[in-house]
């Protein structure tokens, strides 16, 4: 019993502790499809006060009605730096939405577009060189290999060919921009809603198993092996990370005990906050969602 109590106390600690920093965040929603657009900055202090909902309002986790103030507290005073969309996979019910249709630099979340297009156009039995496409997809997403991702895009015929393939899957071409396959270019852009559409389309596609298995598992494998360990998210979240200077992203699936399978996308652009702080905030948001439940 003591061990169980300590486990949940650790989870609560992760959700409620954060540092106070002074920052000059970037307005992520100033990203436009026009490649000549540059990022704007504004001044101010970011003081994050974590919202802890009253326990009497929920008997099992955090009532979903408290996600709004809870996540707002994690984002701090400058919510324009964040884009978040969380939906149930099957019904498309929105659990949480914030700047879902604004453009952000997605970093390596671009690889979700690249690998989805490759699987759709080339098929699961294809090979490149002496390796199967399945191996290329796994290496691209699990360990976020940039060379593999850019090679996949070249093999597809470039960004235009990839967009054509994704359009055949029902992905809105106006919701993202591909400048490369890896996400290293800061000219890539995507909305959280467009990332969600990729995740949903791939889950119901014939290539679902290859795509799904290629994603890192929280606290277990790939680029998520050291994140969210010993929390409710461990083993329940499969998602693609994204990392550039001032950019962190996490998008994927969550096997939720109350809502069933969720799809989510979290994109954060802020070059004035450390990467570790952005990652910590993203993980806190994921934990908020994983511990939420319908209100009584």
UniProtKB/TrEMBL annotation:
NCBIfam families: PBP4. It comes from the Bacteria. Keywords: Carboxypeptidase, Hydrolase, Protease, Signal. This is Peptidase S13 D-Ala-D-Ala carboxypeptidase C. GO terms for biological process: peptidoglycan metabolic process; proteolysis. PANTHER family: D-ALANYL-D-ALANINE CARBOXYPEPTIDASE (PTHR30023), PENICILLIN-SENSITIVE CARBOXYPEPTIDASE A (PTHR30023:SF0). The lineage of its organism: Bacteria, Bacillati, Cyanobacteriota, Cyanophyceae, Oscillatoriophycideae. Belongs to the peptidase S13 family. GO terms for molecular function: serine-type carboxypeptidase activity. It comes from Gloeothece citriformis (strain PCC 7424) (Cyanothece sp. (strain PCC 7424)). Pfam families: Peptidase_S13. Residues 1-28 form the signal peptide.
